[in-house]
Amino acid sequence: MADVNGTWLGTYWQWDVPTRFEATLLHSGNTVTGNILDDSYLGEASLTGEVVGRRISFIKRYLASSNYPISYTGTISESEDFMHGQWSIGGVDSGSWEARRSGENLTVDLQKAQANRVPALTGV
Asked: Which helix (H) or strand (E) holds 77?
């Protein structure tokens, strides 16, 4: 079974307009829960769902601005760093979505960036 724990950065498309989002997922057994923050006016949402093998499905509910649950289904890549699929709001609207795993350890990322940094010239 794929592991989706961590932070994901993604995009969903509605009427061919992209909306970026950040998701933090907690995965235990087949159950996945988490939070999503959209770049749109809809803001924060919670999610609950399941992962079976490389398939993920969840329901997203916005906390303040929408009463309609949004169903997401998708496939997780073999490398477990990318997933994509379709979302739908009942029979009213639907579109595609994708997400990539974000850097999970900011301290390690910072140390790598500092190690690759060119030293500044002194005394110039």
From this structure: none
Q: Other C-beta atoms within 10 Å of 92: how many?
A: 7
* Vertex 25 angle, CA 23 and 29, to 5°: 155
pLDDT the model gives residue 118: 56
Residue that has been written with the tokens 């989002």 in this structure? 21
- The C-alpha torsion from 79 through 55 and 14 to 21, rounded to 10°, is -50
CB distance 38 to 19 below 8 Å: yes
What pTM does this model have?
0.80
Structural tokens at position 28: 């235990």
> What pLDDT is recorded for position 107?
44
Q: Which residues of 12-43 are buried (b: 16+ CB within 10 A; e: fewer)?
A: beeeeeebebebebebeeeebebebebeeebe
Confidence of residue 115 (pLDDT cuts 50, 70, 90): low
